[in-house]
Structure formats: C-alpha cells, structure tokens
Amino acid sequence: MWDPKKYLAFTDHRARPFFDLIARIDTDTPRRVVDLGCGPGNLTETLAERWPHAHLDAVDSAPEMVEAARGRGIDARVLDVREWVPEPDTDVVVSNAVLQWVPEHSDLLRIWLDALPHGAWFAMQVPGNFEAPSHRELRALAAEPRWRDRLDDVELRGGDAVPDPADYATILATGDVTVDVWETTYLQRLSGPDPVLEWVSGTALRPIRAVLDDTDWQRFRGELAPRLRAAYPPNQDTSTWFPFRRLFAVAHKN
C-alpha cells in the first residue's frame, strides 16, 4: 500500500528529477499528455499548467495515490501501466519514477514507442541506486535468519531492476527516433531523525511493510535504523547527505 503523505515528505527532492526530465520535452501544443504513474498528482498539476490546452490523462496502479490526485482536482484513474495503450493523439508521455517497479518495462518501452504517433515525445526517469547502501542494508537485514522466513517471498529489487543508460538508449533508438539519455547523482541534504530510513520507508520498504504486522514492522525499522545511520552519518548540523543516482531517457519520434 502506498502512503501519499509519506511519499510527499520529501517533495522537493522527489520533484527535482521530474522537472529536469520534462525540461527536455520540446513541444508547445500537444494534443494529449499522459502522466504514466501520476502518484498523488502534485507533479501532474504542473503538466496541466505547462500544456493547458492538452487533454491530460493521469493513471496510477495505487488507489491511494489516485484518490490523492483526485483530491487535487485531477481526473486520475486506477490503471496498471502494463495495461496502458497510447491513444492515437498521444503526443507526450511522462513516466516519473515508476518503471523500476515493472520488471518487463524494457519490452513495454518498445511497444509503446512503436504505437505513438510521429512527433510524439516519451520521457522517463527511474532511480538507479539499487546497489547503494540504503538498499544493500535492507536486503541484508531481510536475509538474516530472524527475518528470512517471513520475508523470503518478498521481492526486494537489486541492481538488475533497471538497465544501464546505454541499454535504454539502444531500446529507444529504433527507426527514426532521436534519443537523449543521461544519468545524474543528486547529493540530497536530508533533515530530521533517521531521514534515510524515512525516505526508504515511503518507497523501497513498501513490500516489507505489506507483509509485516505493526509490531514486526517497527522492529524491522528499529534494526535497520542504526545500519543506515552508519552508512549515512549525520553532519555536525544534524543534516544528512544522501547521494541518489537517477537515470533519464527522452525519445522523440521524428
């Protein structure tokens, strides 16, 4: 289950890659704009502001996120991205921090790009930090004997969750398609007690939260917290530096 409030706790840091991504979309009058994985809708609002005359589609697989987006006045709907099919007039597709949850998304990218009309833009961003200490430590804890039996069936993503930038370029650069692929590591300055734990609680730890009761969830967080503090020690001013790698790809069908 997604918690929109927990996800929005780091709004500024989560929003910056979105704006870096859509800055590379060079079109003024798209007919239809799709937010593929709209989340709570806070960033979908900016798409409506940028392209006010376009028909805006907003979809997300999490009912909690769709409800939050609707609370902002966005006509969002529940839909798994695996089931999404572009309408003939789809000129812009934005997928921000979604496809890392979809193991087969490389195949979907080929299908979607082939179905989009000429002149369309497809822009995506995914985290690329699955081998960072934040993820390695939670996987290591989940694999220890006291947790293994309860978490053995939980899929915790590793480095193979997303391809390398060059692989994305190869996937998207088919036919008459112009591709822009890059990566950025944001050195994020977090504040508050155990900020890295709070960050991953809203994303990477979701599959674990889904299978543990409240008591065990708090116990797991309590055991993970000191590991993350050691991996990301606080500064003298109590803030914490949290490096976060992200991968970007923008494809334009000429």
Q: What descriptive keywords fit this protein?
A:
single chain, 254 residues, alpha/beta, Rossmann fold, 7-stranded mixed sheet, 11 helices, globular, Trans_acon_MeTrfase_C, SAM-dependent_MTases_sf
- Compute the number of helices: 11
CATH topology: Rossmann fold
Outline type: globular
> What's the total number of strands?
7
Q: Residue ranges: pLDDT <50 for 5 or more in a row?
A: none
Total domains, how many?
1
The structure class reads alpha/beta
Largest sheet: 7 strands, mixed
Q: List the secondary-structure elements in sequence, H or E.
A: HHEHEHEEHEHHHEHHHE
- Terminal Cα span: 39 Å
CATH-assigned homologous superfamily: Vaccinia Virus protein VP39
Provide the CATH top-level class.
Alpha Beta
Radius of gyration: 19 Å
The main sheet orders its strands as 3-2-1-4-5-7-6
Per CATH, which architecture? 3-Layer(aba) Sandwich
Report helical residue fraction: 25-40%
